[in-house]
Sequence to fold (425 residues):
Amino acid sequence: MSAILIKNVEVISEENNEIFNIGIKNQVFSYIGKETPTGFDNAYVIDGKNFIAVPGMVNTHTHAAMTLLRSYADDMILMDWLQNKIWPAEANLTGDDVYWGTKLAIIEMIKSGTTTFADMYFFMDRVAEAVQETGIRASLSRGMIGLVPDANEKITESIELYNNWHGQADGRIKVMFGPHAPYTCPVNYLKRIIDEAGKLGSEIHMHLSETAYEVSECEREHGMTPIALMNSIGLFDLGTLAAHCVHVTPADIEIMSSKNVRVAHNPQSNLKLASGIAPVPEMLAAGIIVGLGTDGTSSNNNLDMLEEARLTAMLHKNNKSDPLVIPAKQALNLATKQGALALGFSDVGEIKVGQKADLVLYDTRKPYWYPRHDRTSLFVYAANSSDADTVIVDGKILMENGNLLTIDEEKVYAEANKCGLRLTK
Ligand code: NI
Fold:
């Protein structure tokens, strides 16, 4: 696409909180300032008046195609929900189901201001296709479970996914290996995964220390917490994105900090499944990179990252120790820049010259945008993700004035509905 010039837009970013012109060229932000930049004579111009520009949100933990199972089984605890409802339905999944379910999720993400997601599921080549076609950015992992007859095939699929898709779609796709969790992957299976991922240089995306039950079972069986066990077998040496980390001890946090384990914090999912509240302030204080995720549309029924940011800022307000409280600005940073770092995208997550041009314009012609004492505070505590109006990823417009430019919305709704109803028959 040719260059894009967004004129007179209010900007929320780490450094800027004013009205600027934003120039986008060659997939990156090339100008942010008060002047009209040179070299943009033929640029596509967007009038930024009445809009606020926010970095695209980064959803660090999803099972996107589970949109198809949305509302099929709710109000259950994790193990009951997985074993009796979700796993039996998932046994019927086809590649086409995953393709349409993922596209449904991508529509929801773009429309709510998310520009990058980290997905762990099956038929990931079809997820990669959906990512490539729609223009969104993603880190993809084939979920692997060791306690099934085709456990080895899942490792082979992960290797193929890595070889076929890592770095593809102009670098918008990354691939990680995705062992599901300590309670579904025996140590010997994990060792094989570590071996294969290590040969390729792939990182790991895994659920860790999600529930108190998981931790106590692991301690009973191995005499170690899940974090200590993963460390003992060398998993963290590959680079790890750990989803949840709700029940981690101070010793676990020390290990995570020293091994640069990055965390996907999923507050809504953890609350909905009654898993608990992760000690995010303590992890941040230890220098751990924490991003936010929906775990959607798995245990959590939506993919709304603004809700996760808001919840993160609110959940940790009751802490008695002031330095550990997470203010709105930090919550937004976790939902954007820190999330991108958690996924290994170092040039994503900020509206800053040289960064990849992933940006969302939110319509501010709403009652809750007045008065403008603090734009970041208004965004995190008052705004609505459905106010996302225009979305740009990698310098390409994916949605303009609420219209999706790379997706046939009606077709996706019809196909996803068909797939979802068939799966749960
Ligand atoms: Ni999950």
About this structure: The two ends are 44 Å apart (CA to CA). Residues 3-55+350-404 form a domain with the Urease, subunit C; domain 1 fold (CATH 2.30.40.10). Residues 95-111 form the longest helix (17 residues).
